[in-house]
Structures are given as C-alpha cells and as structure tokens.
Amino acid sequence: MGNNISLKKTWNFNGSIPKNFDKHVALSVPFYSDCHELILEISDNFVYENCTIYDLGCSTGKLTKKLCKRHSSLNKIKVFGMDLSKEMISFAKKNNKAQNLHFKNEDIVKYNFKKSSLFVSFYTIQFLRYSQRKHLIKKIFNSLEDGGAFLFFEKIRGSNGKFQDIYNTNYYNFKLNQGFSHDEIHNKAISIKGTLEPETSTNNFKLLKISGFKKIETIFKFNCFEGICAIK
After folding, report:
1. How many angstroms separate the Cα of 191 from the Cα of each of 7, 32, 42, 148, 194?
2. Beta strand pairing status for 116-122 and 52-56?
3. Secondary structure tally for the chain: helices H, strands E
4. What mean pLDDT is reported for the chain?
5. What would the mean pLDDT of 112-128 be, rounded to a whole number?
6. What is the pLDDT of residues 101-117, one digit of tens each?
7. What is the pLDDT of residue 59?
8. Which of 4, 29, 123, 213 is 20 to 30 A from 137 via CA?
C-alpha cells in the first residue's frame, strides 16, 4: 500500500514521520476527516472574539489550521497548536502560516495554559500515563472559561473481554480494507504497545467528572473510537 512510514520498535512521532503522518493517520483512524469537520462545527458554539483555542498534540497542525481559518473573521482570537515532537512543530510552522496561529513545542502536561474557550485533544491523551491524564484534564478544566468546552477524542478499550475482541477484529478488518498488509498491522501493534494505552469509555467519563466537568456528551462513536464534548 502507499504507507511510507517505517515502523521502529517503539512508536514515536519524530524523524521522517511528519511528512507522511496526515496520509497515514487518515487511513488508520475511521472517519478522520469527518471528525475534523465535526470539531469545526461544534467549535462555533464556543469560539468568540478575543478568545483562545488550544489544539493539544497538534502533530502537523492540519486541524489547528482549520480551526484558525474557520474563525478568522473574529477579532483577536488566538489558536495554539502544541506538540511534544520538535519535528512535528517544525513541520507545522513551515506549512501553516496565519497571523493568529501559533505552534509551540511544549509538554502539555507541564504547560501553564491561558484562560481559554476551547480545548481540543484529537487522539492525544491516550499516549499519556493515567496520572498524567488526570493532572492534564484537571488543568484543562481550570483553564477553561465558564461555558467553555473540551473536545476529547480517544481510542478506547472494550468494557469487557468480549467487546474488546469485537473491537480488535473490526479494527483489524478496517485496516485491511484500507490497504494495510497483515505484517504492517502486526508491526504497528507491536510498536505502540506500552505507548498507546486506551481507557474504557466509562473511565474517560470518570476522569472528566472528577476533574469538575458536569455536562458531558458523546458526540462521535465508531467501534473503538470515541469523541466526547465536556462543557464547564
């Protein structure tokens, strides 16, 4: 198939990954582009003049750029794309330029966010340890303006072994239908083991609730992929 990302023993987002990332992830994540559009539509409810938006784990900045363009008519809005990978941020800066668009090579777990109207995490927090997730989501809640939102997309585990088997089989078949070979699917699964650690949907809701969120709704669900909107 056309996937040119060479898998290492442990998955990361550095080296030659950025230039092939968007193509690879669009094939790997169901309804990838549709979920971008869903995020843009929902963002209309939370973005206003002189507000700040954060895209956490922005990778190449594709979604960050779309958010900035979507709200470009508003005065004094700032859109920040943040990623731990220097290569990703370098790529994002070179390929996405707008006056109110900013990219930062930062650790989102340690970073002190400004008061914001919207946070987006598009399949990012699943790469953090549980204690880091708990700390980050609490920090997101505290940094949101009243009425602001956190759009939280994650790969999830099944609630029991049977559902996990169903998820695994369906996702394996999805990737085969996208053109990945059996070896590519196997090698990717090995490379991300211990790096990508999904939680169940129930546990993600619990994390949001203990962080202070009370208005929480599932806005997207397909197999083991889920999107949540949490409003402060």
Report:
1. 7, 21, 34, 36, 8
2. parallel
3. 8, 8
4. 91
5. 97
6. 999 999 999 999 999 99
7. 94
8. 29
